[in-house]
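Changelog-adjacent note: as of this version, every example in the card shows the full chain rather than a window. The one below runs 479 residues end to end.
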Amino acid sequence: MERRDGDALVLFGATGDLCYRKIYPALFQLVRRNVLNVPVIGVARQGWKIEQLTARVRESLKAFVPDADEAAVARLVALLRYVDGDYNNRATFEALRKSLGNAQRPLHYLAIPPSMFPVVIEHLSATSAGPGARVVVEKPFGRDLASARRLNQTLHKHFPESDIFRIDHYLGKEAVQNLLYFRFANSFLEPVWNRNFIASVQITMAESLGVAGRGKFYDETGAIRDVIQNHLLQIVALLTMEPPVNAEGESLRDEKVKLLKAVRVATPAELVRGQFKGYREEPGVAKDSTVETYAALVLHIDSWRWSGVPVYLRAGKRLPVTATEVVVEFRPPPANVFGDQAPEQPNHARFRVGPDVAIALGANTKKPGPVMTGRDVELYVAQQQGDDMDAYEVLISAALVGDTSHFAREDEVEAAWRIVDPLLNLSTPSIEYLPGSWGPKQADDLIKGACVWHNPGAKPQDWTRSCGRGQPEHGAGRG
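Full-length structure tokens:
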């Protein structure tokens, strides 16, 4: 990959919550590791001067990097500049152009509401702050397929696709990247990673917290828009895509797009929407809200490799644990050698994506004793407490050098919206479920045959029924 290092970082929304919680701590770590040494220009409408921005950055580091050493903090502060003004006012962007000085390849980070993206992009182009620049766009990237297409059209009026970085922090997570690496760096997986050996794929993103004071935002979003359209579909793509030619950005993204285009458009009949009891009492939430805080659905991939293998997705708030986990269940052996003493569970591969990280393979071994009875065990390939680097560190450093591999391309975003578009804006009410439960019982009916949801935190031996039993025989077509 040819490096195109940026020579300035512009933060629109510099006084906002995202910069405070995520971006400033990430910038500090990049400075500490000598990765960031270009001017950092904050832009906002607060009536501030550089002194207030500096104080805000220091407050952020005190809150989120309590062991930050003062020498590195001082180096970050020395990079800071500030432009105050209204995004609707061209004078703000004239002042930005002046603050950029001789910078020819600035990276503009839009940490602002999506409604302001077109305004800022138009002004960047009109004031010559755009040529040679790159732009980072925060999610949500549109609210549906139509709005995503409109936003892409606006961006492409002023920036080529290679200079647009649509950020999804999940793509910067070490565990998600490790999932991709594990798939394609190990030869033992490829022969069985297909419909002949795999019975089902399950992906669960559970959160024990509710909307955490963001009721107004969440009531306009819901679980499908918030995490399924982006985070979970990204995991689906990495799990099931064909091998890329190489690890560079475009080769990787080509295969993800091909996979997402092969996913059948989801239907409301294969969706269960839930809302935790008490959600409507949250501040900012409508008293008659039908927005889902839980969603479970079945996807089908119409490809040679995956035809007939159901992909089950589930995401929800106020569930028993906070964890994101993938379970790939293999079909049972073709012959039952041990009769009634056969193992209860088929083999599986388990990927814990967060908050801790694990890759494990499920197998069956004999219990000690004279009888040929088995027990389920897991062989850990990798296990650690969490990501070594914050996702925003990974993504900002990649955008600064023009590495597109961790970012979503135009056709990738639109392909993902296409899958879930029929599930948006449904008028049917969400099913109420109790906080601390695993969501509506109706979600159990989505899983066909003898399969059940595999709950993160439960031991494999507690998975009382397997997806491997009652499925089509090896080589069978789609049912």
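Structural remarks: Residues 222-240 form the longest helix (19 residues).
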